[in-house]
Amino acid sequence: MQPFGTWRNPAILSYGFRPFFLFGSLYAAAAVAVWVPWFLGFISLPTAFPPVAWHAHELLFGYVPAVIAGFLLTAVASWTGRPPVAGWRLGALFAAWLAGRLAVAGSLALGPLATALATLIFPIAVKAVVAREIIAARNGRNLKVLAIVGGLTVAQALFHWEIWRFGQSVYGDRLAISATLLLIMLIGGRIIPNFTGNWLKARGVARLPAPFSRFDAGAMGLAAVALAAWTVCDAEVADARLVGVLLTAAGCAHTLRALRWVPHLTLSEPLVLILHAAYLFVPAGFLLAGYAAFLGGASHEAAAVHAWTVGAIGTMMLAVMTRASLGHTGRTLTASWPTVAIYVAVIVAAGARIVVALEPRWTMSLMPFAGGAWIIAFLGFSLAYGPMLLAPRR
């Protein structure tokens, strides 16, 4: 009997990246396809969540955790040397994620408590499974990744409490964005210089990305403090100015960090270049948020949020999904034209969404454009990579 690809052991349940990358990307496209006409007033949904809250929840706590789970469940096998989480255990985790999405769709009937509990099962289960694998392999250095993932779980619980108590979420949203950004800065700090260095060495380039140093640790620490301050910042002028200083300093530090990874030397390989492009949205968001803190501008605050969410998170997730899917299915690590089109679409979506935040009068024209570009990017990933995610490894 073959280990993967049979009716008892389908290929899609052989590795965590397969179901979660495929259905996470499909859900990312579907959620925005529903959200844009809902936001513009053309349709409405029978849900207990207000429109903006539904949009934030299903992206921050729907598609984002799915992609993170796919990455972690795949990476933990490499970190620990243990067999991947597969088969019925992986199927149960996917069912928990799907149950959360159904709970949100039926939130009017379920009520706030049952909806919250149904959506929290998945992140708690993923954390427990990954923690078990790491502890069993005595690979304690990777537990800090789980600490950040735990922040996402706390953020989701806080989100539901805020919705129940106030009808909107502020701190839950911010904590989720902050936790995801910290994960990008941590994992990106590993994979971007590593993949870039390997690619440059294979081409005989002498100049390589700077290795991890005290500068990187300092930049990470500064970003953590800045994001913590941004998450809990109130409207006091003195506090806002301090937060602005921290955010601006973090933006400058992470711009330098990104440049130390020599992104300009990767222009000929989009599969590597996209990692650098995605990371540059991290300092862009810090600088926009810092500017907003100094001036108290809601438009720049919204631009910062979308530079982080659509730009840094959306682009980095597509960059990781495409590379991991190619590598773990036995394909050549190079970007085909559909992959390049996916990358262009998500960057266009990020740019258009930032412009909408800065220029609200263009909302009716640019919001559908940004949403369409996002849908093209994630639906394009599903169409281009779905066949390889459903088939056994070459």
Outline the fold blueprint.
Elements: H1 17-39, H2 51-80, H3 87-105, H4 107-110, H5 112-136, H6 143-166, H7 171-202, H8 214-232, H9 237-259, H10 270-295, H11 298-328, H12 337-358, H13 363-390
Key traits:
394 residues, mainly alpha, Cytochrome C Oxidase, Chain A, 13 helices, 0% strand
CATH fold group of the largest domain: Cytochrome C Oxidase, Chain A
End-to-end Cα distance: 17 Å
Largest sheet, strands/sense/barrel: none
- Radius of gyration equals 20 Å
Low-confidence stretches: none
Overall tally of structural domains: 2
Assigned CATH superfamily of the largest domain: Cytochrome c oxidase-like, subunit I domain
Strand content: under 5%
- Total number of β-strand segments? 0
Order of helices and strands: HHHHHHHHHHHHH
Indicate the CATH architecture of the largest domain: Up-down Bundle
Q: For this structure, what is the CATH class of the largest domain?
A: Mainly Alpha
Structural class computed from helices and strand pairing: mainly alpha
- What is the residue-mean pLDDT, rounded to a whole number? 93
